[in-house]
Amino acid sequence: MRMRILEISVGAFVLAGVVALVGLALNVSGLNLSNSDNTYTVYARFENIGGLTPRAKVTMSGVAIGEVADITLDRDMLMARVAMNIHGNVDFLSVDSSASILTAGLLGEQYIGISVGAEDENLKEGAYIEDTQSALVLEDLIGKFLFNEVSE
Amino acid sequence: MNQLALLGHAALSKLAAFGRAGMMLFQSLVAKPQPVIMFPLFVKQVYFVGVLSLIIIVVSGLFIGMVLGLQGYTILVDYGSEQAVGQMVALSLVRELAPVVTALLFAGRAGSALTAEIGLMKATEQLSSLEMIGVDPLRRIVAPRFWAGFVCLPILSAIFALVGVYGGAIVGVEWLGIYDGSFWANMQNSVDFYDDVLNGLIKAVVFGFVVTWIAVFQGYDCMPTSEGISQATTKTVVYASLAVLGLDFILTAVMFGEL
Amino acid sequence: MNEFDDVVIDIQKLSFSRGDRSIYDEVDIKIPRGKITGIMGPSGTGKTTLLRLIGGQLKPDAGSILVDDENIPELNRSDLFSVRERMGMLFQSGALFTDISVFENVAFPIRVHTDLSDDMIRDVVLMKLQAVGLRGAHNLMPSELSGGMARRVALARAIALDPDIVMYDEPFTGQDPIAMGVLVNLIRRLNNSLGHTSIIVSHDIQETLGIADYIHIIADSKVIASGTPEELRQDDSPQVKQFMHGLPDGPVPFHYPAGDYETDLLRGQG
């Protein structure tokens, strides 16, 4: 009987470990397994990406619709080329959509916000978003602000 | 000259102990598996090492999470970004505090008990007696304890992290009034399952290996006297804690740093 | 030294040292089959070490230990374990496994080495416990036993597999006279009825002389005398005499080797 209680408690313990891991995965890290593989890639070129990093989220109206896959330097255009993996069920981004690099809060992480245009045709795998807006670089802002102050 | 010889002697004896520890591990783990005999022994050890450590882990996890929530709030509220408390609590717990604190508590709670138990078995000739009966004490006594520690630490660490996050949520959301949507959303956005949760778990696995190894070795290798056992127990806690902190830096540098 | 017809353990030119201290120096010991052999000597002469050498828990520096023609120091791990199945050892402290009951302690070697059914094991264990007079205690935990009872349980465990050789490490130390008498009888009786070879390591002279068929006395890393108890009582070499009669000083010195007493005392004032 003693062995039985022992086995039950060990079983409960192992189960608690699994539950904890699942809790960490779903609740804490927000792991979403369902649409991880069903994505398509679009590209955008930016003058300046600021502090954007791979895995940063891509949002539309604040809703996450994908993430940044890769950031490279485009040698011909001398601009940053950002590859984004967009969830497959978000298939209504028009070709004249615009992408801008935004900052969460004043000091928060940077992410890409997409706003949809008016065209009927939608972005396909490998398409480029032409209308882009670079990251706000705080130093530039401060510089401009100071310049204005001085010139006044 | 004498000092040099002393230094050499100390270095050699440490090296020899390390060699013995390696031999012990090898002999106890590399063996024909005997699941029918070994599994009940293993389960019993998981009970002693894991289940009985649960209370201390849950209580510590809860309080550490709550303290993190409180401290994070008082600092971040000055910058108006108190909704980042969830992110801070979760990241520090999942990446660092859960594996490290769990390993330290584990070394104190379970590691010292393992050392004392095996040491006492040695002192009361139970290990010799096993050998004379024709049972290898490495396989019978050391191996199940080693595996139990190795398995239990990651489980305890995951429980610690989850309890800690909820502790932080209690303080942040329930008491200090952070909007709970942004608390959890910020957390989920910044914590990555593979980079953070799994890496934290890998740390816990490594710590489990090292702490249990040190604990069983110190017990197995101790002088079979009451003084020897007390020394071995102290050594277990000290060496295991130092090893955990040192390894944590190395692992962090490899996983998260860009050294 | 007289020769025996049937030698079960033959130790030849055995040398063993611990650090710089020599415990055995080219020692030859023969243990006859089916008899009770006593190994006696003052404390600290490594009598227990001898049992550990025979059991293969320690490796000698040189020499051979033949148990039925198998040389213990040269056996590999698994052969060694199979030889040990034929040996039972009663440790000084009893060495019962403290986390399992008396019954399970005695059943332990049987479970390890045989595939007997639970019913059979139960019968064997109760028989062994009956032999040491503790059948009624089979449900107790080792911590609930007195020292003498613990040693008897350990004895039941040592003979659980009907070994060919049973080694007793200081079976009489720390026992009250009654428990001692019980043990002496038990060892004699078991040896006669089960027909195994017994080796008793002890420094309790009277008890050992009382039950041993043959005795080796060890001192100064040598065997200083061998013979039947009767022969040894009549031996008149000073070393043997000192030991047999428990004289405080003699060839085996009372003092641990030390420098000159006077110089040692005066040094402190320097």
Textual characterization of the structure:
The complex is a heterotrimer of chains A (152), B (259) and C (270). By secondary structure, chain A is α/β, with parallel strands linked by helices. Chain A has helices at 2-28, 138-151, and strands at residues 39-46, 57-60, 63-74, 79-87, 98-103, 110-115, 128-129, 131-133. Chain A has two helices and eight strands. In chain A, strands 7-1-4-3-2-6-5-8 form an eight-stranded mixed β-sheet, with no helix packed on it. Chain A is elongated, with a radius of gyration of 22 Å. Chain B is elongated. In chain B, helix 3 (54-76) packs antiparallel against helix 4. Chain B is built from nine helices and no strands. Chain B has 259 residues and is mostly helical. Chain C has helices at 47-54, 77-84, 102-113, 118-131, 147-158, 177-194, 205-211, 229-234, 238-245, 261-267, and strands at 7-18, 21-32, 36-40, 62-67, 70-71, 87-90, 165-169, 197-202, 214-219, 222-227. Classes of the chains: A alpha/beta (152), B mainly alpha (259), C alpha/beta (270). At the B-C interface, helix 5 of B face helix 2, strand 6 and helix 3 of C.
Question: Top keywords for this entry?
Answer:
heterotrimer; B: 259 residues; mainly alpha; 0% strand; C: alpha/beta; four-stranded antiparallel beta sheet; 10 helices
Concise account of the structure shown:
The complex is a heterotrimer of chains A (152), B (259) and C (270). Chain A is an alpha/beta fold.
Write the layout of secondary structure elements.
The complex is a heterotrimer of chains A (152), B (259) and C (270).
Chain A: H1 2-28, E1 39-46, E2 57-60, E3 63-74, E4 79-87, E5 98-103, E6 110-115, E7 128-129, E8 131-133, H2 138-151
Parallel strand pairs in A: 1-7, 2-6, 5-8
Antiparallel strand pairs in A: 1-4, 2-3, 3-4, 5-6
Chain B: H1 2-29, H2 35-49, H3 54-76, H4 85-123, H5 126-133, H6 137-175, H7 180-190, H8 193-221, H9 226-255
Helix pairs in contact in B: 1-6, 1-8, 2-6, 3-4, 3-6, 4-6, 4-7, 4-8, 4-9, 6-8, 8-9
Chain C: E1 7-18, E2 21-32, E3 36-40, H1 47-54, E4 62-67, E5 70-71, H2 77-84, E6 87-90, H3 102-113, H4 118-131, H5 147-158, E7 165-169, H6 177-194, E8 197-202, H7 205-211, E9 214-219, E10 222-227, H8 229-234, H9 238-245, H10 261-267
Parallel strand pairs in C: 3-8, 3-9, 6-7, 7-8
Antiparallel strand pairs in C: 1-2, 1-4, 4-5, 9-10
Helix pairs in contact in C: 3-4, 3-5, 4-5, 6-7
